[in-house]
Amino acid sequence: MLGLRLAVNMSWFSNQWNRWNHGDHGGPGDVAWVEVQYGRQMYQVRLPQESPRILLGALRQEVGAVFGVPVDRVKLTFHGIVLKDDRISLLEYGLSNGSRIVLTVVEPQRAPAKKNNRQAPEVVAVPQPGEGTQGAPQWAPQGVPQGVPQAPQAPTQAQEPLQPQRNPEEEHLKAIRAVLWHCNQVIYPELLQFEKSIDALPNARPGEQTAEPKDVNMIPPARIPYAHRKLGEYLLRELFKLDDIPSDTDQVRTERKQTVRQIQNYMDRVDAGWSTASKSKGIVNDI
């Protein structure tokens, strides 16, 4: 662990020296993009150049938005060191363009269940002559004198109901429908915005598109390559979710197949929009 920390520190000092030696003393765009490893897949995540110092918090928010993970569950690791302080800039952590970080999704912490330490009052048998069958004991709370009228007893706390048994088929169907809902309600509106922004651009030769959208809801030409990559990664991640769902029944198999076809249709539309942008609208890849 000490060796890893020394390596990170040396990398940071080396980056600072190289930037100073070449006349780059900071400013917007210091870290424009990084590589994020999630499982066995590698993704390129571009960072918004809206502030002079890009902090770790901005990177965590961008990664959370790209992968659909809540920010409080995003854990980033660089050279074996967990990046924790959101107030520190990426340059201070030693990151630069193309740095590879590892994404881990942590499980939310659950509060421990409260134990019920209340106990029912102990009862003893106290014979009450003249009531019921002669000689049969009548039950009364301990410590109450015999023959004293008893107040009605409060009902004891009911036992917790048994948890219903898990139904794997219902859980798998629920997971598939959650993927379909996210695609239709979250990703599809961004796909429509992507297509409309491309259609609204005038034709131009590659690299010569200078028009700016008149509608504030349209994507600027410089951001269209990023929107293309973002949509592709979003849809690919939803396909990975479906791959983890076993097809154990006919209904699960049918709904999963239909959802896969819907996602593939969206991916075809993303590719078609990018083809139009790159061939007819003068948009070039920014990587």
From TrEMBL:
GO biological process entries: protein stabilization
The keyword Secreted belongs to this UniProt entry's keyword annotation: no
Transmembrane segments: none
UniProt KW keywords: Chaperone
Compositionally biased spans, kind Low complexity: 134-165
Segments of this protein annotated with the region Disordered: 110-169
GO cellular component: cytosol; membrane; nucleus
PROSITE patterns: BAG, UBIQUITIN_2
Highest taxon in the source lineage: Eukaryota
Domain Ubiquitin-like: 59-105
BAG domain ranges (all copies): 226-274
Gene3D superfamilies attached to this UniProt entry: BAG domain, Phosphatidylinositol 3-kinase Catalytic Subunit, Chain A, domain 1
GO molecular function: adenyl-nucleotide exchange factor activity; protein-folding chaperone binding
UniProt-listed PANTHER family: BAG FAMILY MOLECULAR CHAPERONE REGULATOR 1, BCL2-ASSOCIATED ATHANOGENE
Name of the protein this chain belongs to: Uncharacterized protein
Taxonomic path: Eukaryota, Fungi, Dikarya, Basidiomycota, Ustilaginomycotina
